Every structure is written in C-alpha cells, then in structure tokens.
Amino acid sequence: MSGTEPSRPTGDPDENLVWVAVPRRVLTGAPAPGAADAATDSQTALLRGRLSGYHSDHSRIELRVDQATISGDIFLRVNAEEIWVASFRSVPNGAPGAGQEIAVTAQDRLRAVATGQLLLEPNGAEYVLTLTFEGKLDGLPVLTPIRALMQHVGAAPRHLNLEVLSEISVPALPVLDRNGCEMGLIDALTDAAFEVTSLEGRVDLPEAPEGGWSEKQLHTLMNDFARSDLVRPGFAIRLLWLSRSNRENLQGVMFDTGDDLPRQGAAVFASAITDTTAPALADRKLLQTAIHEIGHVLNLTHRFDRQVGRADSLSFMNYDWQYAGGSSAFWRKFNYCFDDDELSFLHHGHYHSLVPGGDVFGSAHYWSGLAMGYSPILPEMRLPGWRLELLPPVSGPTFQLGQPVLLGLLLTNETGAESLLPRDVLDPKAGSLEVWISRESGTRDDPAAAFRPVTHRCVHQSAGEPLKLADGAALEDNLNLTYGLSGFPFSEPGTYRITAYLHLGTEHAGSIARSEVLRIRVMSPESKVEDRAALTLFEPTAGACIALGGSAAYETAVSDLMETAARLTGRKKAPHPVSVGIWRALGFHFDRQYLRFDRGRFYEAAPQEKEAEICRRQLTSETLDCLDPVTRQATLKWTAQVREASKDYGQDP
Fold this sequence. Notes:
The structure is a single chain. This protein is of the alpha+beta class. It folds into 4 domains: 151 residues, Lipocalin (Beta Barrel); 211 residues, Collagenase (Catalytic Domain) (3-Layer(aba) Sandwich), CATH 3.40.390.10; 137 residues, Immunoglobulins (Immunoglobulin-like, Sandwich), CATH 2.60.40; 117 residues, no CATH class. The protein has 15 helices and 32 strands. α10 packs antiparallel against α12 and α13 runs antiparallel to α14. The termini are far apart. The N terminus and C terminus are likely disordered.
C-alpha cells in the first residue's frame, strides 16, 4: 500500500487479529515534546493525557487517559474531514494500566450500544492499541480486533478552539490573581480539561443598540461575525462579550437555536454584571459568568436545577445567590473549579453529548451515574398557597397541524399574605419553570418529555427590586411551545398532555407548584394546501424562526413562511390559525432593527415597515381568538402601541 505499512508489535501476532494499515508518517514521526520524559519505568503505568492514532488512512482514534479512566472516540475521515462514529469508555473497575485488558462500553452515532475490550501495549514512546467490540456499532467490526499505533499529543484530555467577539466599548475579560498565579478565562479552561487555542486577532463588535442587545440579534451576530466553522460539530466555542441585554438583570445566555447544530455560542453582558455586583467582586463575577456560559455550551447544566439538586455546590455552574449557604459564603469559598461529576463528563463524556453542535442542551444526565450521582439536598414537596394554570386558546384547546402552540401561564398567590418573587419566575428560559409534554397513544401514553427552549438565560434574580405579589393577585406570562431544542413537540396529529412545574428555589425549601394537566388536540390536515404547508412549517429553520420571533439569519425561512401564510388563508374571510401565528411572529421580526456585517463593514438594517404592516393588519380582536388570553391581550397591546408610534420601543410581548 503506497505511503503506509502495517504496524506490528514485537512477538508473534494472534492469527485472528486483523492488521490494519497505519500511515508511514505516524510510524516515523517524532514523539510529542515531553512524551519520552513523561514515560514511566513501570510497564503497567500509562502516559496520562491525550493520545491519537490511525488505524487506516480513513479513520482515527483519540484516547483520553487518567488514573481512573480511559475513554476515546473513533472518527471516519472523508474528503479531509473527520466524522465522529462512536465513543467508548472503560468500565469502572480500577486504574487502567499498560498491558492490561480493560473492559469498555461504547455507543455510536445511531445510539447503538456495545461492550468490548481494550488493550494498550507499550512500544517505545508509543502504544499499540487493540480494540475489540462484542456488538454491532456503526461501520465497525464485531469480534475483530482493531489495531493502531497511538502517540501522545497533549497533556489535556481535550482540545478546544475559543473565539471571543467583543463589543468595542466593553473592557477585556479580567485576569485575576489566585494564590499568586494568574487566573483568566483560558487558565480556568486549562485547569478544567482543555488545551485551548484562541483565534488570533480581536474582532470588535459595534456598540449595543439603544436599549441593549436582543436574543434575536445575538443569533445574527454569531452568524455574521464568527470566523470558526458553524456548519459541523466541533470543539469550537464563540463567546460574545457584550455590554447589556434588552432584558433587565440578564447576565448571560447560551443561545441555542435548536438547528441541526445546537450549542455553538454564548453571550455575557458585562455591564449588567458590574452594575449589580459589589466592586470588590465584579471581576470574579465576570470571569465566573464567562466560564458558566461556556459550561452551558459544553452541555453542563445548573447545579441548583431540580433534577441535579446541588444548591450546595461551589462549581462555576452554580449561582452565588442560589448557593445553599448564601451569596457571601459562596464567594468566600469559591475556588474557580467544576465539581467532580462535571470534570468527569468534560474529560470522558460521550463525544456527541459534549461537543458544541452535538446533542441538545440538557440531554446528558452526567450527575446521575452510580459513581458520580448525587441526591437532591432537600426533598421536593408540593408548594401550598400557589395555583399554577396553563391557559388554552380562547377558541378552545384545539390547534391546526403546524399552528404555533402558544399557551398562557397564570400564577395566583393564595398564601394569605404578600409574597416576593423573582421577575422572571415564569420564564422557562430562566430555569425555574419546567414544561413536560406527552402524547396520548391508544391505551398507553408516550413517555413525557421536558420541553427545552431554544435559548437558555442566566438571570441575576437578586439584582433589582423583586416582584411583590399581593394575596389573591396573579402573575401572567405566555409559553411558546412550537419548537425547542429537540425539535417540534407537536409534529403529529393527536391528543397531547401538558403539565407545568414551577420551582421557587431554596428559600421555599425546594417545593414546587404544579399545574393541572392541560389536554390539547392537534388536528389532521383538511386539505392538500394544509398538507403541503406542513412541509414548510416543520422545517427546523422555520421552527427556530417562529420560536425566536424571526431572525435576520433565516431570510429564506421568513420568505417561505410568509408565502405559506398567504396560501393557507387564500381568499377566506377569516385568516387561517396557522397564518395568524406566522404573522404574529414575523410582525416582530419585520419591526426589528438588525445590526449586520457585510464586505468588511457594519450597517444597520432598518425595520421593514411595509412587511410589518402586512402582518399587523391581520392581527385583530376577531382573528386572535386562536391565541390564549394572555398572548392575545399582549399582541393587541403591541399592535395598538405600534399604531400610535412609528416603531416599537418596548420588548416583544
């Protein structure tokens, strides 16, 4: 074979082994710097860190080794690109060693699972890998050992490309002193798991629009300005370092449109942090928030989340004000680190669960394993004195196929006294509210699944004035359940069951308010026009566009949705309910001013008044009965405000 030769260890090979070609450049290449020095005299000790090797010109294996675990990923090389095929990890049974056969479990990109055996044998400064799987995995041999020569390529378990896009007027990320050593963004990531490569050259974003950045603009910013690859999964993260959001107290957001490639970027609002943090703590809070948002991009969830139950954590992924011992105690003890289960996931987690652009946010329950799991520190109980309600459309709990699913939320105080609540308590993107959806299917319902919005907000609830809710008063908001990180939850006709859970935090002893189950019906298409419209409505970009209230990055989807709305309504006197939902979402989009970058210059894309008026004209008190009462009233208020002014100065309803 031209350019390659078999890699054979000394001694007689097993007759059943399949010898695979290893590129000559791997066999003759010099060891990684420091690899020989790091080698140990013990034949049973393994070189810690990251190893890489080829078992043909078309595939590569990457290993991560520490004192307790070996894990790895297998990639297929196609046209100079690598496609992930499967991940494997040693079974917890003691420290891995060279020359010892190690049991592994593996999962491929199709979610098939298999067990197997791994053997690493020293070969000078390198190792010969023998990997055997006992079950079928995507394109990999069964009961046929694979061999490759592995070289040490780094001390860190993983490599990460980091791109920071900074607003021009915002000071740079802080570098702190921790016990006489510098601690900055890259230092913290290096301590955790990563060899970090930062893209050279600062990218200066223009100053924030009046009123602050909206989440819709963030998605457009990342698509316009990011220099790293956004079209395939990879360990590359884009961090937007900005001044402030258009939402009060919003300090960070992992904006995840739920496209084919989720979790690719995050934003931190530095001015929102410094304005609400004591000066002595401001730099620490800025750095902690930046790592916190990067943690979300890597699929790490909040430690205080109901499912995790670790409000006692001092991890980057906790909030100081949610810490079980209070904010002051958190900062007194905080040492710029992740918890052990988080580190184990970052080092050895399944590739597609971890990599930006891989699985959807919140899909990896890394805290629940036998070795790393924790129980909630407080038992959860029903919260007395609070009534949580889901409100269907005014016209009834029936939706046309593809119709945006919007529901009202009502939280009523029946405690007998005034109560203080965070202002974002009913925002599912802020983490306190959970929505679970299941589909009724014959005699057995499908398992309920949590709805995860396309953005994940980190809000400083202790900043600013809390909301005072008198006894008997109600707080209202709305839910857009049309499209989330897992796609379309209502993509098939049928009856669905929806339940909301509200977690009010440690000050309420971990108790929850639970709504009654709301049953809604999604109808089958009644015409060929409705059937064809579904092809457009269930495109991921169309769903993300509806969920975000439009985006300048989805111009084709916007055009397709407008055509679909017009086609569905046709010459009917009453607009089609699907059309009403589209016009409402795109009315916000056309009214919005976007900052764009093209051919080396910034420019402000003015609102599209003509298109916005086309949408608003259809949103009347008669046509909006297909919306819930909360969304209906907010939409009518918005259209009235626009009629009185040349543009909308407030936030989207």
